[in-house]
Amino acid sequence: MPKQDSSPKLIPVNQLRSVSGEASEKWESTGNDPEFRLEGVPAGLVKVSFVASSDVPVDFVLYAYGADGLLKEEINIGVVSEKEKPYSAIVQIDVGARLLRLDPGKLPARFVIKSVKLKRMTGLRFMLRASLNFLSDKNNISLRAMSGALSGALWLLREGGRRRLRDHAVQRVKETAGIHKFNYSLWVQQHTPGREELQKMAQQSITMPLKPTFSILLLRADAEEYCTKRCFESILAQVYPYW
After folding, report:
1. Is residue 90 part of a domain?
2. 114 with 1, same domain?
3. Residue 238 and which of 69, 109, 192, 207 are 20 to 30 A apart at CA?
4. Residues 94 and 61 in one domain
5. Domain range spanning residue 173?
6. pTM above the 0.90 mark?
7. Which residues share a beta bridge with 118?
8. Helix (H) and strand (E) counts for the chain?
9. 115-140, pLDDT tens digit by residue?
10. 124 membership: H or E segment, kind and range
């Protein structure tokens, strides 16, 4: 029987190099498609967890493949930034499939990843996790919400058995995790060009042989004044000048 917990080895496959030796926890991605593989993962519901930080914000994405070798699931684990903290995701692994792929972002970066663990989730443990996720939402801490959730769970159990109830719980856990992992301010930081890049773009727009002019129509019947003002300021701040 597979172990309940394991610490798989991260195997660099593409556009990755160790910063200070083979056993290092510090890595550098050298392109837009870095890839690790985690081999020998157990079948069933598996919690993948690790601790990470990065010098620039990058999205860590987990890919699970089926026994047939085809991609089965893609999970955005979250944006890893300068602050070192734990990350986790729950994934269903097919019997016969023993491969997970972890992509640490889509741009060159230096990052730390350590304490990588795989934990097999029993049915009881997973249902407890789903319940805690439900209760963590303040909108659910009411007799009406709890009663509705219990009624729904009983209906799923009656109609589809424990498997249907578990599949629903898996989906809810992943949806909740996705909501909490998305960080818009980090996304903006990750995708906003720097000053030098903006200056280069501005120069290129002037020297382009073809300079199309854009017209923008705004419907502002019910818009508040400050929203319209911010919209104008955003347009005028663009490095492309032909409006």
Report:
1. yes
2. yes
3. 109
4. yes
5. 122-192
6. no
7. 6, 48
8. 5, 11
9. 888 887 665 555 555 555 555 555 54
10. helix 123-136
